[in-house]
Amino acid sequence: MINKKRLWKTKEGHNTENKMEEVKKEAIPEHIAIIMDGNGRWARKRAMPRIAGHHEGMKTVRKITRLANKLGVKALTLYAFSTENWKRPKLEVDFLMKLPEEFLGTFLPELIEENVRVEMMGDRDQIPAHTLSAVEKAMEATKENDGLVLNFALNYGSRSEILEAIKAIIRDEKDGIIKQDDLNEELLSAYLMTKHLKDPDLLIRTSGEIRLSNFMLWQLAYTEFWFTDVLWPDFDEGHLLEAIDVYQKRSRRFGGLT
Ligand code: FPP
C-alpha cells in the first residue's frame, strides 16, 4: 500500500501528480496571493549577484502559474515590485523592471495557449514605459482568456491603494455619483485595484519573513496565511501543493462558529 504521508513529504517536485490528485479532491483556493521573497538570499548563498536571484525567481513564476492554472485556481496575485522597492540600488530596480518584459517576451505565447489572462495592479505613473508597454501588450493579447488571472502587483502599495480609493470616493460623493450613506465595505472594495477579484483565500510568503509588507491589507482580512522558510527561487510545485493542503485542513469561520 502506498504511504500517502511519505509521498507528501517527498521533496522537490517528486510525486507532484499524486499530490495534485489529493488536493483536487477538496476545495481549491480561488485566489492565491504570494509575496515572493528571498531572491537576494538565494543568490548570496551561491555568491551570485542579487539580480541572479530575481532571474531565477522569474522561472518559479512560470512553474507556479502553470500549476495554479492546472489546478483551477481562478486568480494568482504576485507581489513583483512594491512602492518601497524604489529604495533599492538603481541596477537592481532597472533589472526588476526588465523582468516582466523578459518573462512575457518568452512566455506570452504559452500564457495565451493556456488561457491565462494577464493583469496588473499598481501605480502606473512611475513604471518605465518599456515595462508598462510589455505588460499592457500581454493584457491586451490575453483579455479574452477566461482561465487563471495572473495579476502582477507592480509598483503596488496597499496603503496608497486605500488612500487613492478614499480620495476617489470623496470626489464621487461631491459629484453626486455616490451618497455618503451608500458607503460600506462592498463599495470601498469596488474602489480598490482588485475590484473585479475575490479577496485572496490563501496568502503565501516565502523566505521565513512573517509580515505583510504593505500587501493587500484590506483584501487579506479573512485570508489564510501560510509562511515557509523556502526561498522563492527554490519554491516549487510540491511547496504550492503543500500550502494548498494546509489551507484545505484549516477551518475558516469568518468570525462565526463552525
Ligand atoms: C523579494 O526578494 C523579491 C522582489 C522584490 C522581487 C520579486 C520578483 C520576482 C520573483 C520576479 C518577478 C517576475 C516577473 C515575471 C515580474 P528580495 O530581493 O527582497 O530577497 P532577500 O530578502 O533575500 O534580499
Tell me the count of domains. 1
Say which molecules are bound, naming each kind only once.
Answer: farnesyl diphosphate
State the CATH class: Alpha Beta
Oligomeric state as shown: single chain
**CATH architectural arrangement:** 3-Layer(aba) Sandwich
Number of DSSP strands? 6
Strand content: 5-15%
CATH topology descriptor = Undecaprenyl pyrophosphate synthetase
Name the shape in a single word.
globular
Helix segment count?
A: 9
- Summarize the helix and strand pattern as letters: HHEHHEHEHEHHEEH
Please tell me the overall pLDDT.
94
Relative helix content: 40-55%
Give me the Rg, rounded.
19 Å
The description of the largest β-sheet is: 6 strands, parallel
* End-to-end C-alpha gap: 34 Å
Widest sheet: strand ordering: 3-4-2-1-5-6
Low-confidence stretches: 1-10
Structural class: alpha/beta
CATH homologous superfamily annotation: Decaprenyl diphosphate synthase-like
